[in-house]
Design brief:
By secondary structure, the chain is of the alpha/beta class. The chain folds into three domains: 28-109, OB fold (Dihydrolipoamide Acetyltransferase, E2P), CATH 2.40.50; 114-262, NADH-ubiquinone oxidoreductase 51kDa subunit (Rossmann fold); 354-426, no CATH class. The chain is built from eleven helices and 16 strands. Strand 12 and strand 13 (280-286) form a beta hairpin. Bound molecules: iron/sulfur cluster (2 copies). Residues 349-355, 365-366, 369, 398-401, 403, 405 line the site of one iron/sulfur cluster (SF4).
Length: 427
């Protein structure tokens, strides 16, 4: 809910919506014929005798195209691999997509079950990096960058998403057990649950401190929580792990518990589906389910120029193919009618300064946008703080000329990173 006009002197105040005490049970939607799993991009240089088309797979089976045991995906259904092909995902991400035709009956893989007696970080790294919530376990594998604090996100970063609030509220025992497993595996003792307002009650004895964050957007974005919870500003060019901090979604913590307590790698994702009319509903679906099937299950029709967005209204990214699958970190799917989608115009910047006032990173956005529109990305980075952006999207939201500033920023960062990677590979 927006509290004040964006066009006055004050910064915008948009409130996170807190989950009601008795939300509807998540609607269960399962894939009918195929699942698609996104594996790290493979090419002739790095493929080495992994899975092949025609191979049978069991639910929970580790599938890999590479020899490296940390590069894999987990089969979320039982069936046969029918395709392994390049796939262009959202925002220029390239993957190798593994398609599995679902068989008539389900068989569970037992490789992981043999290793669960004592939860170990190596076991988790080898099997659980693609569990629901996508636990960032790789952050603990660099001895040069020890992690000393884990922040568990019980409030989703973007607006209108109920996913991690739901997990924290209704799968609290699993979160509690996951906290203990995380402590045992990593040796990190400083765990903090970030939650908001009324969801705070009754969370004693969880093995983690509970911090109440202000339910005003963008307070639940990691950069903001670094400041409000730990009193630290992340220097430009550094990541949270450089400062010894790891962020886990509540669902990722619950997934660790589900895996080690049952011996089965969880394959079902909770997410928030937002319909064209703005109504939302939590759902449970398998990772790999084509998003088109979820949309169809709600009877929504996609017309030309409608938008399907992964994530929330401020930071989500549009996808262009309905066979795009649900991924371990897909927390929301929004369908926007073309008539309600934000109107993007060709109006120039009028230098009104609204974006500068709204920016929590205090960036000179009005200057930055001139360089971004002209494609001068290096100047934008060198002189106008491109990498100070915390990715909140407020500048685009308030811009009176409807300039897609945040999208320009993401594109510029993506392009500069791509060039840097290409240069590094040619050295
Ligand atoms: S997206 Fe970046 S530039 Fe825009 S308001 Fe947020 S922090 Fe500032
Ligand atoms: S980019 Fe938009 S919000 Fe920022 S100064 Fe220009 S017109 Fe105003």
């Amino acid at each position: 809910m927006q509290k004040r006009s964006f066009f006055g002197w004050a910064k915008p105040q948009i409130f996170y919506e807190l989950l009601p005490d008795n939300p509807l049970e998540p609607k269960k939607i399962f894939p009918s014929a195929t699942i698609k799993l996104f594996h790290k991009k493979a090419d002739a240089r790095n493929v080495s005798g992994g899975i092949q088309i025609g191979d049978p797979v069991h639910t929970g089976q580790k599938l890999s195209l590479f020899a490296n045991p940390h590069d894999y995906v987990i089969a979320t259904a039982t069936g046969t691999i029918t395709a392994i092909a390049p796939y262009a995902g959202d925002f220029g991400q390239n993957y190798t997509a593994i398609t599995v035709d679902i068989g008539a009956s389900e068989a569970l893989d037992d490789q992981f079950a043999k290793l669960i007696e004592k939860p170990a970080l190596e076991t988790a790294l080898n099997f659980l990096s693609h569990a629901p919530g996508k636990p960032p376990l790789q952050l603990f594998s660099d001895p040069a960058k020890p992690i000393h604090t884990i922040i568990i996100c019980g409030l989703d970063g973007d607006l209108g998403i109920d996913t991690n609030q739901y997990i924290l509220k209704f799968k609290l025992e699993a979160v509690k057990r996951g906290i203990q497993i995380l402590k045992d595996m990593t040796g990190v003792d400083n765990l903090i649950i970030a939650t908001a307002g009324e969801t705070l009650q009754g969370y004693g004895h969880l093995g983690a401190r509970v911090k109440n964050i202000d339910p005003i957007y963008p307070a639940a974005l990691p950069h903001m929580m670094m400041q409000s919870i730990l009193g630290q500003v992340v220097p430009v060019g550094q990541r949270f792990e450089d400062l010894g901090v790891a962020f886990f979604k509540a669902e990722a913590v619950a997934s660790l518990a589900a895996a080690f307590d049952t011996g089965q790698i969880p394959v079902t994702k909770t997410l928030t589906f937002v319909k064209k009319d703005g109504h939302k509903r939590l759902i449970e679906t398998k990772i790999g389910t084509p998003i088109g099937e979820i949309i169809a299950a709600f009877g929504e029709q996609i017309k030309e120029e409608d938008r399907v967005i992964l994530g929330g209204p401020m930071t989500g990214a549009a996808i262009y193919a309905l066979d795009h699958p649900v991924q371990p970190d897909t927390d929301a799917i929004m369908v926007l009618d073309r008539d309600r989608a934000a109107y993007v115009s060709d109006y120039p910047c009028i230098n009104c300064g609204e974006c500068v006032r709204a920016c929590p990173a205090r960036m000179p956005v009005n200057m930055l946008v001139r360089f971004l529109e002209a494609g001068h990305y290096e100047e934008a980075a060198d002189s106008y703080d491109l990498y100070s952006c915390i990715g909140c999207g407020l500048c685009s939201f308030v811009c009176v000329s409807k300039i897609p500033i945040f999208q320009y920023i993401r594109l510029a960062q993506y392009e500069l990173d791509r060039v840097k990677t290409a240069e590094a590979m040619n050295v």
